[in-house]
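Suppose you are handed a protein chain with no further information: no name, no annotation, nothing but its sequence. What can you learn? This example shows the usual starting point.
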Amino acid sequence: MTTPQAGPLPVTRRPTSGPRVIVRILVGGVITGGLVVLLLTHHDLVAELLDAIGDARPWWLGVAVAAEVVSIASLARQQRRLLSVHGGHFTLRSVLATTYGGNVISTSLPVVGAAAAAVFAFRRYTRLGAETTIAGWALMMSGIFSSISFGAVVATGAILTGHTGAAISGLLGLVFVVLPVSVIILGIRRPRIQAGVERHAIRFAGVLRRRLPKIGGRVRDEGIINGVDKIASFRLGVGGMIHVLALSLLNWLADAACLAAVLMAVTGTVPWQSLLLVWAAGAGVSTLKLTPGGIGVVEAALVAALTGIGFTASIALGSILLYRAVSLWFVAGVGGVTLLTLRARSRVTA
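A reasonable first move is to predict its three-dimensional structure. Written in structure tokens, the prediction is:
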């Protein structure tokens, strides 16, 4: 994802006002407004949530919060490991702040939230000292490993509940969607595959130049070739791949553990055999980004999954609202504070 220029350009100061500032204000306003709207339009759910909290066991709620902290920290450690592929050093604190900030952006913006969060993370990592190629590669590999581990968790849940067909479908999805991309990334060291990637990337850049000249005009064929050469030189190694995959699994499993802890807090029991599939019902729907934070959609999917295995509607609703308070609102709150802190620091250092 390098964007080198064809030749040296004069050094110019970035304007401190104008369109760039206006865009930042608008983005910040959309993110803040999205969080406020979520609270104001769902005040009835907040009242039901307070009732659920009042009857819940506090110790298990603490376990749920701890599990969610572990989930976010695992994702941050995964990306930190990928960013250090060429020996670079990034503090866990800085990567963790980026992860929380990207999470709240992804949560607050429907449909485009994931893309906006990726752009935010890419810019943050390059400002922290990562080369553009490494930052882009790390985010791409993070998504691949997360997809592989999510499919593995869902397949495991299907096997535990005896849904062999669902397990096979999940594994086939990994084979036909994730595997080809993984083969390209891992096999790019081979000259034939590397040449094919360069050829298609240059062709895509040509389309960009014709249709989006402002963006495509900054992409040079030489830069693409150099970027692909650099990616081909990355060596994560077998040990590194196992480490990243383990952190990806921990990210998902810790979030499922948060749901289990909430169920213990509210009901005192956990449907261990069906837990992963119940959790996957909400996690899968949340990736669609149909509403900010998946509000309404995720809750409906999780409540339906719990009632489908024998929970009463009231218990299921209270449990899910409490789980979402931790996995959505708590994380979004920390992310919002993180974004404000990062913005304040950037103004001081500007």
